[in-house]
Amino acid sequence: MSSGERGAITVLVADQVLTLDAQGTIHTPGAVTIEGATIRAVGPPPSTPAGEVVDLRGCVLLPGLVNTHTHTPMWVFRGLTEDVPRGEWLTGRLLPLERRLGPDELRRGALAGCLELIENGVTTIADRYGHMDAVATAVETSGLRAVVGHSLFDRSAEADLARSEALVERFGTDPARSRVWAGLAPHATDSCGPDLLRRVRRLADRTGARVFIHLAQSEEEVATVAAREATGCAGYLDALGLLGPEVVVAHATYLSDAEADLVGARRTAVAHCPSSNAKLEGRVAPIARMRRAGAVVGLGTDAACCNNGMDLFDEMKIAGLLNKVATDDPAALPALDILRAATSEAARALGIDHLVGTLEPGKRADVIAVRTRGAHLRPWHDPVANLVYAARGSDVTAVFVDGRPLLRERRLVELDAERSLADATQTAWVLADARA
Ligand SMILES: [Zn+2]
């Protein structure tokens, strides 16, 4: 397989191609022609293919999924923080575990998390955590496209700013120049006071980095900010110039109607993590209201210990179900909107819609193949509804990033999956033993 080589031409031929372009064009059957890292053509299968043909009959092709919010190293915590009362998860359960891990353990966890994401058809992630220098090395090795941010807190502001600047120095902030690039990742509105957030704003202005922050993810956060500011978590960010199209707010669970309207009015990008919000908080974020007001909404898996997996097919279905319940309207958030929230709109949220998120000539060749032969995917009357409500991450059979195959016939192409998973599992067992 030579498609990752510069200039080599590969033609992916499948039963169907969903481009997710502005018109929602679907080709049945279809082909995607890749030259090097770039899509050269999308359409019906060519009668005389210009390069090596990859036979993906029995599959549909779609853009690689874009995960707008995750923490890959937290893969090692899966199963250690279950069914916790509201308000106790973060400080009561998670922080004691996090204190036990150093950069080597986090790097192993991150690689395992990346493998899980690739197996589920994710090609781009927005990843943020501590020790991001080590984590980013794993992300880079995995072959995923990624924006990486080192989490900033008041309590360690100087060191966190230095590490954030080092990431920006190492990777740059331009997704067109580098498959892995850097963002700025202040932790949340309660853990970051105005002085730190002003410095983040200035650093973003100077470097062009996008800003990623948790917003109103818990009642404690809302109470802390309310004691400090009269305007609520969203108003607090807005006053500091941190709502807008270049800011990605995660969760936005506990927002008033006025705050949801403000987030939307500023055209802010929202990372919606429905299964994490449901499992950790028992809540649904006011997504319909934010979208109506103008927010750009992409889906996120959050971390493996929040929900308990990193599968955007799960998130698509759960987003649909929960938002229908939350709005008391079964017609709310239709399947095409949900599929876009995992592809084209998610790319817009991360500011990379000029590069990925649709299958169109000139874009990067981030493509996945979903096998449609399973009983749970027949009949194939409505491809979009089948992908959103019936497909699973385990139906993904091939994954390409920049034209480079990361997964073929459900096997990782370059990485030693068994060894990576065994290393990270060992770390997880040490944690579990220490907790006991
Ligand atoms: Zn998060």
Structure description:
The chain is an alpha/beta fold and 436 residues long. It has 16 helices and 18 strands. The protein has helices spanning 89-98, 103-119, 132-142, 157-171, 194-207, 219-228, 232-239, 257-265, 274-281, 287-293, 304-307, 312-327, 335-341, 344-349, 383-390, 417-435; strands spanning 9-18, 26-27, 30-35, 38-43, 52-63, 65-70, 122-129, 145-152, 180-182, 185-186, 211-215, 247-251, 269-272, 296-299, 367-371, 396-401, 404-408, 411-412. Strands 1, 2, 3, 4, 5, 15, 16, 17 and 18 form a nine-stranded mixed beta sheet that branches. Helix 2 crosses helix 16 (417-435). The longest helix is centred in the last third of the chain and has 19 residues, at 417-435. Mean pLDDT is 95; it is low at 1-5. Zinc ion binds next to loops.
Our measurement of the CA-to-CA distance between the termini, rounded to an integer number of angstroms, reads: 47 Å
**Count of individual helical segments:** 16
**What Rg do the Cα atoms give?**
21 Å
| Class per helix and strand makeup | alpha/beta
Q: What is the percent of helical residues?
A: 25-40%
Query: Total strand count, please?
Result: 18
Biggest beta sheet summary: 9 strands, mixed
Q: Runs with pLDDT <50, length 5+?
A: 1-5
Proportion of residues in extended strands: 15-25%
- The coarse silhouette is globular
**Arithmetic mean pLDDT:** 95
